[in-house]
Each structure stands twice: as C-alpha cells, then as structure tokens.
C-alpha cells in the first residue's frame, strides 16, 4: 500500500514513514541536545560577565542558576505537550501546540459541547513577531549537522573566553569586584544601579531562550522511545552543559574585568596577546551564529510560507517549485516566494542591526519580552490545558505563582531595556559602529 507524503520526493512506502504519514524521523537525544545547545549558547553568553557585574558575587551566580532551573522546569512541561494526551496526535510546531491553550479557555467559558475551533489568532502573530532575529535552510529536519558544528563552535569560543579570563586573573588583573557588584557613588548612581540590574535580568533571560523552537526540535526525534522522554533527557543535558559554561563565562569574566566588565565579554580582550586567539574566538562566534540563526528562523519561515500557501493556493509565485541543478549540491528546488521574502527579511534585519547597535539593551529587551510568554506562560498553560494540573491543587497553585512571579521579572526588565534604548537613541549615530 502506498502512503502519501508531503515530501517533494513523492511516494514513500510504509516502512519509510512514521505513524502520521510523514518521513521517518531519525533524531536522537544527542542531535536534540546539539540543537538545544546551538539555540541556547549564542550571543547571550557574551553579556553574562556584565550581568554578573551588576549584581555581584552572590546574587549574580544565584540568579543565573534560578533562570536555569526555571527554564529546565518549563521546558520539561512543554515537552509533555508534544502529543495530544487524548488522541496522541503530534504538534509539529510551537504555534500548533499553543492552540491547546485557546481551546481550553473556550471550553471553560462556553462548555465542553462548544466546537471551539481556532484560527490564526493573535498568539500566532505574537509568535511570528518574536522570531524577528533570524535566515534559511529547506526545513528544520535537515539542520542536525549544522547544529552539531555550531555547538562545537560554541564550546570553542566559550573555552577561549574562559581561558583568557583565567590567564588575565592569574596574571594579576587587579579587577575591582564586590559582593554586590558595581558600586553606587563610584561606578553608577543608585538609579542606574537599579536599572542595570533589571536589564541584566533580561540579559540572563535571553541567554536561555530556546522554548520557541523546542517543539520543532522534539519533532525531529524517533517515536520510540517516547519523544517526551527523550526530549526531557536532551533538555537536561543541554541546559546542564550551557549553565556550566554560563557560570564559568559570567564568573570568570567578572573576576577578570570586575565592575568595569563590558557588555560584550570578548571585547575586553581587544589588546590581549596572543591576538590570533581572540580573533579565532570571534570566528567561532560567527560560525555558531550561522547555525543558531537557522535554528531560530525556521518557525518564522514555516509560519509565513504556510499562511501564504493557504491564502493563495493557485499562485505559481507562492507554490511553484523549480528543480535546479547546483554544482557540489545536486538537485535544489527553487521557489520564488522563499527566495524573495527570505532575502528581504535578511536584508531588513541586517539594516536594523546596523541602525541600532545597542547590544545589552537589545538583548535585554528581546530576552525579557520573549521569556515570559514563550518560556513560561504558554508551556504552563499548555500543561494545564492537557489536564495535568487540577485547578486549585498545590501543583496548580505552584504553577500560578511561578507564572506571575516571572511576569513581574519580565516586566521590570522590559521597562529597563526600553529606558536604556531611549537614552541610547539620544546619542545615536546610525550605521556608525562604536568600539
């Protein structure tokens, strides 16, 4: 019996597909861990020394660990929402899983007899907007090799940064540090101290941002063992490894540069010898970000292109595929929509980045703005919507406390980052890089 498949390759036999008729998934806990590490360890690690400097030796590492534990917990809840507990149906993307939240609210208000069918709603729009940091591969399932390379790059520049920091400390950096971080009246005013701490919270939240691609990563896994079991293992491995490097980068960076730690960890080694080692670390970062960019951008591409296909099913510009033979690659399927809109997107994001070179405030704003809805709110609501926490039970109450506590943290971080951007814009010189 032939089973139809959405893949361009045409028909597949039963042995070549999973229970949903799609091409057989081959991902393992190792490839999923590589995806997570690639998604998590990125430019966020560069701001952690500055973030620790705002809080000091005690609060800095503790709060970083708290973000690690909260992210691990919320991600484990989200992993359990990959399949519908009643039908066993898969959710292929984060936005599909989120629909469970809307339907649960509808059932609560209208009764279980209501249809409660959902369309593309405001949550999908928010999800699309929050992906505006990302560029391009055919689909998420072909990213395993790139994620492994990118994860190796992240280890590379983390080790180099940590090694340089240790060497600087061993050589007598005489950096001025304290238990409470930057000093009021010496480094900053009291108001600046508070605002900087709030921005640092956003920076730490950004450093752990990967929930928006967690479902997509989970959808690459083999169905046996169960995907949620394998995914939880991958989450634990990924977050444990990244937290280890984050603590080393944050703590050793603060030890090396003290209260004068810059927003970008590696810029502090600008005149450090051997210079080639610093250059190599920056090359590693560039290669890593290529992979991380792809991991994060796929949900956005899928969202836009799916909507276009649904709205204009007869359009050749949107749907027509043209096979092209490329040297050293083989057959590549060209599509005008993919080419035009992805190219325009990359150009737009690059121009925006050149106009607004506010590293810490941008990182803090993105982290704070996306942390609560994507990492906390939706995973908790999905978990509750699937009947895993009875209302007013201790588990339900604990989840509500966590949800609203994180909301407060995100709000103050957003306000602080916006304030930093407003202050920065006053002296803005577009397209001029300042180092």
From TrEMBL:
Segments passing through the bilayer: 29-52, 58-77, 143-167, 194-215, 235-255, 275-296, 339-356, 362-380, 401-422
Recorded superkingdom: Eukaryota
Signal peptide location: none
Keywords attached to this entry: Amino-acid transport, Membrane, Transmembrane, Transmembrane helix, Transport
Biological process (GO), any one: amino acid transport
Keyword Membrane included in the entry's annotation: yes
A GO-annotated cellular component: membrane
Domain called Amino acid transporter transmembrane: residue spans: 100-422
Subcellular location: Membrane
Name the UniProt record assigns to this protein: Amino acid transporter transmembrane domain-containing protein
């Amino acid at each position: 019996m032939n089973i139809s498949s959405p893949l361009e390759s045409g028909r597949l036999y039963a042995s070549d597909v999973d229970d949903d008729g799609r091409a057989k998934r081959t991902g393992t806990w190792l490839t999923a861990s590589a995806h997570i590490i690639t998604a998590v360890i990125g430019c966020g690690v560069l701001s952690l020394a500055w973030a620790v400097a705002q809080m000091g030796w005690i609060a800095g590492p503790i709060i970083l660990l708290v973000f690690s534990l909260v992210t691990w917990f919320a991600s484990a809840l989200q992993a359990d929402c990959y399949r519908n507990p009643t039908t066993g149906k898969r959710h292929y993307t984060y936005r599909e899983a989120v629909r469970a939240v809307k339907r649960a609210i509808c059932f609560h208000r209208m009764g279980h007899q209501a249809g409660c069918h959902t369309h593309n709603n405001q949550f999908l729009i928010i999800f699309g907007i929050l992906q505006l940091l990302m560029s391009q591969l055919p689909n998420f399932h072909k990213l395993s090799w790139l994620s492994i390379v990118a994860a190796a790059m992240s280890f590379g520049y983390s080790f180099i940064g940590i090694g340089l920091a240790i060497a600087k400390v061993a050589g007598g950096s005489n950096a001025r540090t304290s238990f409470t971080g930057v000093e009021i009246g010496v480094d900053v005013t009291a108001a600046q101290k508070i605002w900087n701490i709030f921005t640092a919270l956003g920076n730490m939240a950004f450093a752990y941002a990967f929930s928006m691609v967690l479902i997509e990563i989970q959808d690459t896994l083999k169905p046996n063992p169960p995907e949620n079991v394998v995914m939880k293992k991958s989450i634990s491995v990924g977050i444990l490894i990244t937290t280890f490097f984050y603590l080393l980068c944050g703590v050793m960076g603060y030890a090396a540069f003290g209260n004068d730690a810059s927003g970008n960890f590696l810029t502090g080694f600008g005149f450090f010898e051997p210079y080639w080692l610093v250059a190599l670390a920056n090359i590693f970062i560039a290669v890593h970000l290529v992979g991380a960019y792809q991991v994060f951008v796929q949900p956005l591409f899928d969202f836009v292109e799916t909507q276009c296909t649904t709205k204009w099913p007869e359009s050749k510009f949107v749907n027509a595929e043209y096979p092209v033979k490329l040297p050293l690659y083989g057959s590549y399927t060209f599509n005008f929509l993919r080419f035009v809109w992805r190219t325009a997107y990359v150009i737009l994001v690059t121009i925006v980045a050149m106009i607004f070179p506010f590293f810490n405030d941008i990182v803090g704003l993105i982290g704070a703005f996306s942390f609560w809805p994507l990492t906390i709110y939706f995973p908790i609501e999905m978990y509750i919507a699937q009947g895993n926490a009875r209302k007013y039970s201790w588990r339900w109450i604990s989840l509500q406390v966590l949800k609203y506590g994180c909301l407060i943290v995100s709000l103050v971080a957003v306000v602080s980052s916006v304030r930093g951007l407003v202050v920065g814009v006053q002296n803005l010189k577009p397209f001029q890089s300042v180092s």
